[in-house]
Amino acid sequence: MNKQRAFTLIELLVVISIIAILIGILFPAIGAVQRHARQTENGTRVRGIVQSMIQASESRRGFFPGFDGFAFTNDGTATTGNSGPGQTVEARFWILLNGNYTNGDALVSKQETKDPWTTGQVTTDNYSYAMLKIASNTNTDPTNGRNGNDRFRREEWRNEQNAQAPIISDRLTLGPANSVQAASQPEEYASIHDGSTKGNWIGSIGFGDLHVDFAKTPLIDTRIAGYSNSIDTPGQDDIFAQLDTSATNSDDINKNAAMVYEGAVNPVGIFE
Q: If we measure between CA atoms, which residue out of 84, 92, 270 comes closest to residue 170?
């Protein structure tokens, strides 16, 4: 008679242990691949937004939406969809959306659950990305008050193909106290991406020449209005700080990148 060979209890436990070890090795690898895929897709979206701005600039004297070189776009139903004046992030996104330069889905990161814009005003419920700050207050006169100080950044708010001028970036989800002149505090930052903890911001940054970096820090090299923020110390410009605290020349103090997410005056983005 043929005898059927069966697993012993020890053999079964060994097989189970091997499978558990393999799963333990495989799952982190799968997670890393998925994170990389989301980061790559996010970078593609950021590049698409910069591309849409370049296309829009062709009918705006080379400037991106919101500013035409002389004045900011006035708020209104036909101009910004009542989303705010042209220096606000919401108004600039509305101009892109209403002009069919991009679509609502493209403005929402896969890392977030938001409602893609379809019609009406643009709000923070409709987008995931921060834009280069081009004004500090809502006065539509670009020479007025702090808006005059922001003229250096506005020089980069156009199709200049500057490889060191950030135009779009992932937003913050956490930051220091909201202040127009907030000090650089990256230890307080957090991002929308998986694995990001307080003090560990990571995200996509789209530059004026259409290239996109997935940065692991908000401290990067920039060049704004011809002033290089890496002359003395590489990576010294905090893209979420309003002022370049490393500048030694008072004339250069506002020649740094500053990304805003909500409105025109928020230095670090909305806090959640």
A: 270
Which amino acid is it at 265? V
Dihedral over Cα of 247, 251, 256, 258: its sign: positive
Bridge partner residues of 223 (DSSP): 228
For residues 27-34, give the mean pLDDT.
67
Tell whether 36 is covered by a domain: yes
Structural domain count of the chain: 1
**Per-residue buried b or exposed e for 205-233, using 16+ beta carbons within 10 Å of the residue's own CB:** bbbbebebebbeebbbebbbbebebeeee
**Where in the sequence is the domain holding 19, given as residue range(s)?**
12-260
Query: CA–CA separation, 40 vs 17, rounded Å?
Result: 35
Q: Does residue 268 fall inside a structural domain?
A: no
Residue 6 belongs to a domain: no
Q: What is the pLDDT of residues 219-268, one digit of tens each?
A: 999 999 888 887 566 667 889 887 655 555 666 777 888 898 887 655 44
Asked whether residue 272 is assigned to any structural domain, the reply reads no
Check: pTM over 0.70? Answer yes or no. Answer: yes
- Please state at what angle helix 89-98 crosses helix 9-57, rounded to 10 degrees: 80
- DSSP string covering 136-202: SSS-S-TTSHHHHHTHHHHTTSBS---TT-EEEEEPEEE-S---TTPPP-GGG-EESSTT--TT---
